[in-house]
Design brief:
homotetramer, Tetracycline Repressor, domain 2, 9 helices, about 0% strand, elongated, DNA-binding, HTH_TetR (chains A, B, C, D), DNA-binding (chains A, B, C, D), Transcriptional regulator, TetR family (chains A, B, C, D)
Chain lengths: ~210, ~210, ~210, ~210
DNA sequence: GATGAATGAGACTTCATTCAT
DNA sequence: TATGAATGAAGTCTCATTCAT
């Protein structure tokens, strides 16, 4: 009765949902379409997910969870806040460019979901926000970032800018490379956040 | 036969739609609900709008059109790019704070719409983007803004930051004042955009 | 309150209905379309007709009434049953060929109407049936038509044949002339109805 | 996704549609009524038919297809054109008399359908027309039918007469037997079509 | 008499979810 | 576990008719 949250088919359904939503749009992604793409029967979806909404929330949680976990792991080893900022932007844009379906779904389609889906999305998003704020706070503590910026506001600028750049790119039908935006965005944000007398570190080439 | 695009009822329906969507969410805003709120019969909606989608696009176009027209008018008289930036942020946040329904609809609900509605939204949004880019370009030309930032990227940072701050505020259920964010956001963006040796102008008090 | 059954606008509305139905089909002929074609307001229709159904029945009655009255008048002066049959076919096909809108409406569109309209149509149609039967009966009485055919059946063959030929012609989009069918149909029916030893009269040229 | 065109329910829905349309009239036969009569849910209709129109076209095609296939099979074994004509009339009238609902639907209700339904109906009707013309052509080739009648016109008379007789019978609410019309109609048409010196064959008793 | 904006009942269709197999 | 045919609630839109002006 309770939905199984693991298994081969669980993942197959999630991946199918990403593909179907990316290709058909949120409002044109029926359960039956996702089931067909996943190679299972309609009813099988309900063995793994409580309902369609649960599937969509799970989709975002899984994908976002993977991303934040990966990001945290990669960033943990690093010390320099500038390098961390560079790495974050690089990870963010590389992920989207590497998976066009995911990019479409995350930047556009999933924002068409309703309130309760958004609530389900809130938790993993907050974790990502926390990572961003931590990077900023470390920079403040080590006196390389400005003391006079509210951390939350800093996060809003960092995320808002990356998100807007990514959305523009997706909406442009990806006629240019998002990776090419990594260094410009880094330079812009590093400049904006760096403390008055601190020399901004150039983008570490290896993070592209 | 052709939908009437003006008149008392036209506006009443637009306002009713904003209210209903704000209170019920995009996916729970049926035509009949909007009609009831507007005090007209369901069929009357179709005398003024081709269909539900046309109503939603019109809603955004009217509201966004009013805003960009107003913004352009207010900004036209001004010379100083810093002052213009300050004014823009002030207008943006004041509009949303003044009309809580509109804020919800613009920041959250309308982003749940489908592809064709988004297309209808694109045009007025581009006009707003253009205003932002013009402000930045003027600042570059008068040597107060950095020469080494791509104008489109500058616009993405400005809009992305304002949008993210506004969305955070709406999602927080507006437990704090968005107006209080005007000066911090201005300081942050002005700092990010200002040319190396230019002294950032403090936020003009009268623009709050 | 009671519908006016005469007047300039009454006729204008009838003619407009014929045109609109011919051009748009029965199911796509809204009251508002007919009103626009007639150059009156929607509400005005209801000053002259009880409702849409009443308009359609009236349309058929007027047109069919004109036709039967005209036919009766023309046929009254004639004596010869063969000549009368020839004249009838000629009148029938000439009327349809002369008024393409009427042809479409009578042969195709009006048959899409519902039960109560068909009932309203029945009376004028019966009058036309009566004319046909009378021609046959005269032929029987004067021994030029077969005695062994039931008059009703004779009428059904005459009307059924003319009707099928006319329908075929209308459905063919009138790529050929219906008038060219007058003589062949006459020959066929005259042959079928003529008494064994009676020489069929050739089609009187003047009736084409 | 694609509509299933076979199965137990497919037939049940077709039969239900015939009954509902016969009893309520074309314009008063809602999908929900047909579904109820068939003992299925409204949505089930759409598993078997693309839409309401598709159901109506299918209905006619199935019924007409059955009839023409049956007629062709029965007529194939026969040689004598007179006998074939007799058989055709017998089949036509017997079918309608045996299934009062079908008679109502075919003779009256389905003619109320719109253009696209009529188009869907055209193909099976043409097949029936072809059968009729073939009978006539065989009679001409074997010198028992008149050489001077255009085959298409012959078909129009045959079909037009049978159709008018059937329509009269249906409209009369079937207060008499349509079968009783078989021999009179045969005699009338055989007389009309037979070559000058050919003795008309009496109606073969076994075909009643 | 004439208008035409407004009405609102009602029809078709979709699709998330269920459940017998 | 898995299936997929069946369900039926619910939403958008049309259009004949009305009635205040």
């Amino acid at each position: 009765m309770a939905a199984k949250r693991t298994g081969e088919k669980y993942n197959a359904i999630i991946e199918a949902a990403v593909k179907v939503i990316a290709e058909n749009g949120y409002h044109n992604s029926q359960v039956s379409k996702i089931a067909r793409e996943a190679g299972v029967a309609d009813g099988t979806i309900y063995l793994y997910f409580k309902n369609k909404e649960d599937l969509l929330i799970s989709l975002f949680q899984v994908k976002m969870g993977d991303f934040t976990a990966g990001a945290r792991k990669e960033l943990n080893d690093m010390q320099n806040p500038f390098a961390k900022l560079a790495k974050l932007i690089s990870l963010h844009f590389n992920l989207l460019e590497a998976d066009r379906h995911l990019a479409l779904v995350v930047q556009i389609q999933l924002r068409q979901s309703n309130a309760s889906i958004r609530e389900g999305i809130a938790a993993p998003l907050k974790k990502y926000f926390k990572i961003i704020e931590e990077i900023f706070n470390e920079g403040v503590r080590s006196n390389v970032f400005r003391q006079d910026i509210n951390p939350k506001l800093a996060r809003q600028m960092i995320f808002g800018t990356m998100d807007e750049v990514a959305t523009s790119w997706v909406m442009s039908q990806r006629h240019y490379s998002l990776k090419d935006q990594i260094i410009p965005v880094y330079n812009l944000l590093a400049q904006a956040l760096s403390a008055p007398d601190v020399k901004i570190e150039p983008f570490p080439v290896k993070y592209i």
